[in-house]
Structures are given as C-alpha cells and as structure tokens.
Amino acid sequence: MAHEVTVVTREGCSACVRAEADVARICGELGVAWRTFDVDSDAEWRAEYGDRVPVILVDGEEHGYWSVEEDRLRAALA
C-alpha cells in the first residue's frame, strides 16, 4: 500500500520548518508522497491541531506532533 504523509504547519513556525525538512528527507529516501497543510487555512483543522503544530499525519491518521520521531515514522512507512 502506498502511504501519504501530511505535515500540518503554520506560517512562522520554526518547529514546522524542521519537521518539513525531516519529513522531506525521510519520505524522499523511502519514495513516499508527502505534502504540507496550513492549519490556519481551515477552521476545523485549526480547532483540532492548532495548539500542537507541527502535526504529522500518516494516511490521514495522527502519527505525532511537535517533532518527527524518525525511527517511528520509518517503521510506519515500511
């Protein structure tokens, strides 16, 4: 099954920049599609994730937040 990773971010969030770089590197190595989503562009997402960005979603399910746990993300995508 092909996985998809989403990084829920916010403008001006330095932790988000780090998480995006980590996800880009890991997904690039594994050939997994990924995208970003601005939490402030959707009221429902802002209510759900706004106080925890960056949030990492794998296949639409919350995988983690605040930072990328590389070993755990690699295992989820294996």
In short:
With 78 residues, this protein is α+β, with helices and mostly antiparallel strands. The protein has 3 helices and 4 strands; from the N terminus they run βαβαββα.
What does this structure look like?
This protein is of the alpha+beta class. The protein has a single domain (4-77), classed as 3-Layer(aba) Sandwich (Glutaredoxin), CATH 3.40.30.10. Helix content is 41%, strand content 27%. The chain is built from three helices and four strands; from the N terminus they run βαβαββα. It has a four-stranded mixed β-sheet with strand order 2-1-3-4, with helices on one face. Strand 1, helix 1 and strand 2 form a beta-alpha-beta unit. The mean pLDDT is 96. InterPro entries: Glutaredoxin-like (IPR008554), Thioredoxin-like_sf (IPR036249).
Second CATH tier, the architecture: 3-Layer(aba) Sandwich
Overall geometry comes to globular
Order of helices and strands: EHEHEEH
Count up the domains.
1
CATH topology: Glutaredoxin
CATH top level?
Alpha Beta
What composes the largest sheet?
4 strands, mixed
State the secondary-structure class. Answer: alpha+beta
Q: What's the arrangement of strands in the largest beta sheet?
A: 2-1-3-4
What is the typical, i.e. mean, pLDDT? 96
Question: What is the assigned CATH homologous superfamily?
Answer: Glutaredoxin
Tell me the span between the first and last alpha carbons: 10 Å
Number of beta-strand segments: 4
Our estimate of the beta-strand percent is 25-35%
Number of helices: 3
Residue ranges: pLDDT <50 for 5 or more in a row? none
